[in-house]
């Protein structure tokens, strides 16, 4: 297998990874500071509440102590109906819950006992009625003082809106900072992609204030200039090779046809010259930097046209099983070159000795993609040599050392598929033979 068509289920980009880590860090900081403020607020509020409650208890104690028994009952009846402060007689059957649920409650209860005496009881509910209850004594009588319908506490409920705003601001700030951090890397990624596609004039900003990014951009631009120069030199060299080799080959062909009397020898010489010319064409196809123009291509029509040149039943039979309406985004020249090399490879190697090659061209749809399948029914390729099939000048087995090809067919296929923005997979098919899958984007 040369290229894995399956993509990872979860591809986390650098932006989202940085954003998640930064947002988690800042959100944790906001929550930690909020908790710190809550803890710092607990002690002064407990002291203030204890001072007020102690004053109310002492005031109630003095008022009840200086009242006779008849007026005390009337006063207790009046205080029991009050909304702010209620005083009730404590019974031995009363059941209460201690007021020590959190740090604030413990601090408040301790302060009240210090101010009112060690026998003071502070409860968060009496007989299942919630509130802040303080039990005090006057002589042999005991009383409950309730100051609120619910226990006092330091909570986040009053500041929930502030916490929500802080977390939203943290998320937005994290996104902005992450974008600023990743922008140079994103630009570098785009420029590298353009270089891979053959656009060697791509340049990055060398005037940025960040020294590390500036040095990377300068090095990338220098590399792009060197690659552009090498590409220009290669184009000139290829043009020279094409001219310098094909001119003497043409003369050799002409001289062989005119001067060699033996018909069989003349045919052999013509075949050798044609083979040399075909090898030169392979070299040129592999090395030529072609400009790709993607447009909707009728896949069945293109495959039928390329198969026409191989309709020799004694050598190869090609069955095209593609719907006429199937279209893909591709460059017609590049995709034709891919099919031409695959058919030629199957004609030479995809058959048993003494038999003609059989090639089936089919497809399958995978979401927005189309998988073009080209399969032969030959001996296939050993598994240990599968990864080297697209290596230039490599042949799949030792029996092919005497073949007339240059060992560039599948290397050209891989390079052309990359230019088309597709994916390539070559493997042994079930039941024998070699299967090539070319994944291209579907054209609507």
From TrEMBL:
Its main location: membrane. Its EC number is 2.7.13.3. SMART domains: HAMP, HATPase_c, HisKA. GO terms for cellular component: plasma membrane. It is a multi-pass membrane protein. CDD domains: HAMP, HisKA. GO terms for molecular function: ATP binding; phosphorelay sensor kinase activity. InterPro entries: 2C_sensor_his_kinase, HAMP_dom, HATPase_C_sf, HATPase_dom, His_kinase_dom, HisK_dim/P_dom, HisK_dim/P_sf, RisS_PPD. It is found in: Cell inner membrane. Keywords: ATP-binding, Cell inner membrane, Cell membrane, Kinase, Membrane, Nucleotide-binding, Phosphoprotein, Transferase, Transmembrane, Transmembrane helix, Two-component regulatory system. SUPFAM superfamilies: ATPase domain of HSP90 chaperone/DNA topoisomerase II/histidine kinase, HAMP domain-like, Homodimeric domain of signal transducing histidine kinase. Residues 240-444 form the Histidine kinase domain. Residues 179-232 form the HAMP domain. It catalyses: ATP + protein L-histidine = ADP + protein N-phospho-L-histidine. Signal peptide: none annotated. PANTHER family: SENSOR HISTIDINE KINASE ENVZ, SENSOR PROTEIN CREC. This is histidine kinase. It comes from Roseateles oligotrophus. The lineage of its organism: Bacteria, Pseudomonadati, Pseudomonadota, Betaproteobacteria, Burkholderiales.
